[in-house]
Every structure is written in C-alpha cells, then in structure tokens.
C-alpha cells in the first residue's frame, strides 16, 4: 500500500464522515463546520488527481467564500433570543427509498460501464495552471466571459433581494 | 495507483448523502449545504475523469460549476434571508404560501 493509497483512503473517510455529519447532525453549527472538512477533503483528493490549481481554487472559493456566506446565513436566520439551533427532519422513509434507488443506479452505472482510461503517465506531475490559463483564453473564451456576467448578475441580484425594503408611508 | 472506480464510488456516496439532506431535512440552510455537497461530488467525478483520461477539459467544466455554485450560494442565501425576514422561519415545511 503506497502513500497515495493511504492518502486516498484518509481523504475519502474524512469526506464521507463529515458529509454525514453535515446531513445528519441536529445542530446546524456542527453541520456548517463539518462542511469545512468535506471541502478540505475534496481539495485533497483534487491534489491526488494532479489538479493542483483546482484544489487551491476549491479552498479559496468554497472555504473562503461559500462557507462564510453559509455561516452568515446561519447567524442571520436564527432567533438569538430563543437559541433554537436544533433542526428536525421530514419524511425519512420516502427519502431513504429515493436515495437508495439513486445510489444503486449511480454505483451500478459506474461499476458496469467500461470507462476508457488513458495510459498512465509516469514521472513527476506537471503543474496545470499554464494549461488551464491557455484553455480559458482560447477554446473556452466565450464561456469564461459569460461566467463573469453571471457573477455580476448574481452580485447585484443578491444585494437587491437581501436588502431591507424601505417602509411604505 | 487507485482505480478510477474508487473515485466514482466515493462521489456516488457523497452525492447520495447530499440527496438525503435535500429530501429529509427541514432547515433550508441544511438543504442548501446538501446542494453544495452534491455539486462537490459531481466536481470530483469530473476531475477524476479528467485525470484518468489525460485531458484537462474536465477541469475546465469544474471551473464553470464553481462559478455557478458561487452565484447560487449568494442568491440562495439572499432568498433565505428575505424569507426569514417575512415569515420568521426557514423551515421548508412551514413555507407553503404557494401551495394551492
């Protein structure tokens, strides 16, 4: 068992356990913080898959941006007086049924299909940032620009929706 | 080297955990976190395929998924906060004003 195998099982265990805590924990603060560990574990798996730039981006955007937004959401939507941090569940049985069907289908497809795999490249992994930058500026230039417009619209829209409206007089 | 199927199975498990969260939890923010989990598992699949195929296009897809996830997080949380201000709750079973 090489170091990479050990790291894979390590990150996979962290990801699955902390994702379960996110979903099944009764305390919403525990959920938010274990989401942090899930994001870290997925970033670690990206590094194992030779996607170094993507791993850094994952940490910056998910941990630095989305998770902080989530924590703000948690803080803003709970009554401070009543310290009601517990959250309940809805119909468990249909949810379990649908989920097991989805999981069975996915794992079945993934194991049955004969995926095409390129021959393994040996030697040190090459940094991916240069290749990604070139692809952004050539093949994927239009989607790149559209993505920036989407982010601008989301910024303006979120500010307008979340703003407190003026009292009608 | 780890077989490709291990990564695929891991992301299938993560996706299923996210589906449970969306279907079974009452709190809108936890539903939201579960959606992020599902997005992450799909990203993991794309990166795994990209690595095992020796083609960086999969990573390109992940960047666009990240963009949409960030936009979705901002707008979704704004909606949840506006909802909380009007209804004083974020439990999705108590928000049924659009139900006939």
Q: What can you see in these coordinates?
A:
- The complex is a heterodimer of chains A (169) and B (100).
- Chain A is mostly helical and 169 residues long.
- Helices cover 71% and strands 0% of the residues of chain A.
- Among the domains of chain A are: 1-79, NADH-ubiquinone/plastoquinone oxidoreductase chain 6, subunit NuoJ (Four Helix Bundle (Hemerythrin (Met), subunit A), Up-down Bundle), CATH 1.20.120.1200; 139-169.
- Chain A has helices spanning 3-24, 28-48, 52-76, 92-112, 129-137, 141-162.
- In chain A, helix 2 (28-48) packs antiparallel against helix 3 (52-76).
- Chain A is globular and about 65 Å long.
- Chain B is mainly α and 100 residues long.
- Chain B has a single domain, classed as Helix Hairpins.
- In chain B, 78% of the residues lie in helices and 0% in strands.
- Chain B is built from three helices and no strands.
- In chain B, helix 1 (4-24) runs antiparallel to helix 2 and helix 2 (28-53) packs antiparallel against helix 3 (57-87).
- Chain B is elongated, with a radius of gyration of 17 Å.
- The mean pLDDT of chain B is 88.
- At the A-B interface, helix 1, helix 2, helix 3, helix 4 and helix 5 of A face helix 1, helix 2 and helix 3 of B.
How does the SSE layout of this entry go?
The complex is a heterodimer of chains A (169) and B (100).
Chain A: H1 3-24, H2 28-48, H3 52-76, H4 92-112, H5 129-137, H6 141-162
Helix pairs in contact in A: 1-2, 2-3
Chain B: H1 4-24, H2 28-53, H3 57-87
Structure in a nutshell:
The complex is a heterodimer of chains A (169) and B (100). Helices cover 71% and strands 0% of the residues of chain A.
């Amino acid at each position: 068992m090489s170091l990479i195998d050990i790291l894979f099982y390590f990150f996979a265990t962290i990801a699955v356990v902390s994702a379960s805590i996110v979903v099944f924990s009764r305390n919403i603060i525990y959920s938010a913080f274990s989401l942090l560990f899930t994001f870290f574990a997925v970033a670690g798996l990206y590094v194992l898959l030779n996607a170094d730039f993507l791993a850094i981006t994952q940490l910056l955007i998910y941990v630095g941006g989305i998770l902080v937004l989530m924590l703000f959401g948690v803080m803003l939507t709970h009554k401070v007086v009543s310290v009601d941090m517990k959250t309940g569940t809805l119909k468990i049985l249909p949810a379990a049924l649908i989920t097991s069907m989805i999981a069975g289908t996915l794992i079945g497809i993934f194991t049955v299909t004969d995926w095409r795999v390129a021959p393994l490249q040996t030697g040190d992994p090459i940094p991916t940032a240069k290749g990604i930058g070139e692809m952004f500026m050539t093949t994927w230039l239009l989607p790149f620009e559209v993505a920036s417009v989407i982010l601008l619209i989301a910024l303006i829209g979120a500010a307008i929706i979340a703003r407190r409206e003026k009292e009608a007089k | 080297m780890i077989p490709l199927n291990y990564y695929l199975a891991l992301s299938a498990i993560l996706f299923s955990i996210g589906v449970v969260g969306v279907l079974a939890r009452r709190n809108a923010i936890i539903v939201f976190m579960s959606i992020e989990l599902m997005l992450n598992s799909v990203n993991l699949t794309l990166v795994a395929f990209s690595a095992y195929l020796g083609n960086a296009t999969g990573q390109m897809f992940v960047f666009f998924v990240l963009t949409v996830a960030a936009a979705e997080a901002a707008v979704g949380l704004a909606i949840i906060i506006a909802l909380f201000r009007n209804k004083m709750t974020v439990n999705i079973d108590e928000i049924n004003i659009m139900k006939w």
